[in-house]
Design brief:
Strand content of chain A: over 45%
Largest sheet of chain A: 6 strands, mixed
Radius of gyration of chain A: 13 Å
Radius of gyration of chain B: 13 Å
Structural class of chain A: mainly beta
Oligomer: heterodimer
Distance between the termini of chain B: 36 Å
Shape of chain B: globular
Strand content of chain B: over 45%
Structural class of chain B: mainly beta
Order of helices and strands of chain A: EEEEEEEEEEE
Number of helices of chain A: 0
Number of helices of chain B: 0
Largest interface: A-B, 29 and 26 residues
Order of helices and strands of chain B: EEEEEEEEEEE
Shape of chain A: globular
């Protein structure tokens, strides 16, 4: 069955370091992959979209990679700040569908 | 723009009761979605709609119903509440002329407790 895995354990890093979160998937061939940020008690907020034919996407301090051979996406936050502390969700969709499948999310804590 | 709004924010239901979770968006988006999020879990799609009058099932539709009579509103109905429906419910919308590359905008969520 289709499966999306994100590290369920919280990731703690020091302020100023680069945070790297992973999203692995199996039995799935996504054409689109999105990353969202979710703060406690709030709805997810869209961060970045990457398509299957794109290797990398950047937005300010954020960078996403998409490796369809490894079936993996990496999400990087450079120069991390305590305000980056949140849960980050990846979501995948195949072409021809309007439905995204979400991962369970990884909780990031940036320590001052 | 208010974006995506949801009411109520929190509700306690007794087993067997029914209720409607309200969702509205003022962005003129075609697509609307209902998700549930259980503690420590990802979002599970319950139902979605690609426009007024058109709805379809997601991953976990059992126990729920939806309707889409207008572009703006997409209510979710629970007919016979069960403890397994205790969750946080999120409504989302997106403008998508052709595909799933559009951003989904989420509401603040409705926390439902069924006792």
């Amino acid at each position: 069955s289709q499966k999306i895995e994100q590290n369920s354990e919280a990731l703690n890093i020091q302020e100023g370091k680069t945070a790297t979160l992973t999203c692995n998937y199996t039995n799935y061939s996504p054409a689109y992959l999105q990353w969202y940020r979710q703060d406690p008690g709030r709805g997810p907020v869209f961060l970045l979209l990457i398509r299957e034919n794109e290797k990398e996407k950047r937005k300010e301090r954020l960078k996403v990679t998409f490796d369809t051979t490894l079936k993996q996406s990496l999400f990087h936050i450079t120069a991390s700040q305590p305000a980056d502390s949140a849960t980050y969700l990846c979501a995948l969709a195949t072409s021809g569908t309007y439905k995204y499948i979400f991962g369970t999310g990884t909780r990031l804590k940036v320590l001052a | 723009n208010a974006g995506v709004t949801q009411t109520p924010k929190f509700r306690i239901l007794k087993i067997g009761q029914s209720m409607t979770l309200q969702c509205a968006q003022d962005m003129n988006h075609n697509y609307m979605y209902w998700y549930r999020q259980d503690p420590g879990m990802g979002l599970k799609l319950i139902y979605y709609s690609v426009g007024a009058g058109i709805t379809d099932k997601g991953e976990v539709p059992n126990g729920y119903n939806v309707s889409r009579s207008t572009t703006e509103d997409f209510p979710l109905r629970l007919e016979l509440a069960a403890p397994s429906q205790t969750s946080v419910y999120f409504c989302a919308s997106s403008y998508s002329p052709g595909g799933p590359w559009e951003t989904q905008y989420f509401g603040p969520g409705t926390r439902l407790l069924v006792l």
